[in-house]
## 1
Amino acid sequence: NAGVTQTPKFRVLKTGQSMTLLCAQDMNHEYMYWYRQDPGMGLRLIHYSVGEGTTAKGEVPDGYNVSRLKKQNFLLGLESAAPSQTSVYFCASSPGTAYGYTFGSGTRLTVV
Amino acid sequence: GESVGLHLPTLSVQEGDNSIINCAYSNSASDYFIWYKQESGKGPQFIIDIRSNMDKRQGQRVTVLLNKTVKHLSLQIAATQPGDSAVYFCAEWRAQIIIFGKGTRLHILP
């Protein structure tokens, strides 16, 4: 049972490039989330999904898009990367409301 | 605005002593709280949770206390060990998402 798997683990992008971060969970969880974590800023919610085919904006959605075409996968896209998007990105999933999240191990993204 | 926050960004504790990490919340309607532990280079890991109909919940070496009157949450770690060195986040469920505090870094002194 792998839990929540994020790929890639590390990536360096040039300003203006695009990329997609993949999150996969094998726990049949309904809810999935993308957070970013910056030094001194804690975890900030980018986008989330409460079921297959649904997405919603979080606290810091600008510059990102997401898709949840399959229940087990939640993709985070950066269309035109900016240095301000340098961060560690965490995916998480939950069975539903008022249950703890299970987090992935993170993707460290650097935009130069 | 409403938020979940921690009182101290850093806490240093002697190995073997008990650690107490505090958290204040402002949303009186909150009914589910969670503590997470994040070790360096890893994702946050669920430690323990508590619902608003409880005042105390115990796990293995950890206890969470909830004081709804003053909207205060604490995490107690018994007999702190080097492996407890990490950042600890309190978190609160709101609607369909979890709101995280900024975290307290726990340093273990030999």
## 2
Amino acid sequence: DAGVIQSPRHEVTEMGQEVTLRCKPISGHDYLFWYRQTMMRGLELLIYFNNNVPIDDSGMPEDRFSAKMPNASFSTLKIQPSEPRDSAVYFCASSSSQRIGTDEQFFGPGTRLTVL
Amino acid sequence: SQKIEQNSEALNIQEGKTATLTCNYTNYSPAYLQWYRQDPGRGPVFLLLIRENEKEKRKERLKVTFDTTLKQSLFHITASQPADSATYLCALDGGTGGFKTIFGAGTRLFVKA
């Protein structure tokens, strides 16, 4: 398996623009997570899905952030409009409830977002 | 509020020595605790999971302890190697059926040859 795939790997945009981050989880995994990592706040859970349904979005910072999972193999995280304080590395991770004895999450390589 | 503390200062040790990293938490009763490794420019990689009813777990050169009374986990790397240099994150989960995992900020480890 190729692991969790994220695109783009780097994104530079100007304040006010819409940003869409994409994620393809590992095939067969039924949980998908979006995290944000900054030096100041570390790794923060934004939202997670189970079987394509959003379960907990309490970590989403503002209404400017939205996430969707239209099918088991694709998810997007959208920021509109983007602001400089949104600059961070965004990680997507997936996990399987079938892995008995562990709740290991498999992380993608991340998208480094810079908002100017 | 729930809080996880890991040494913010980097840990520098000599190759061959044992590295010990600490994870302390407050206002939380996790069902299990995980340790992840993160290299620069990459996502975290899972290393070990230890449950609340387990005191210690080992995997090759890695050893994790979990003291729910002290609210602390220790992560040991024995016979450390320069390739072990990375940031190590601890993560707690309530295990309530959901996946509300909370990560610590991580400790950077440097192993000198």
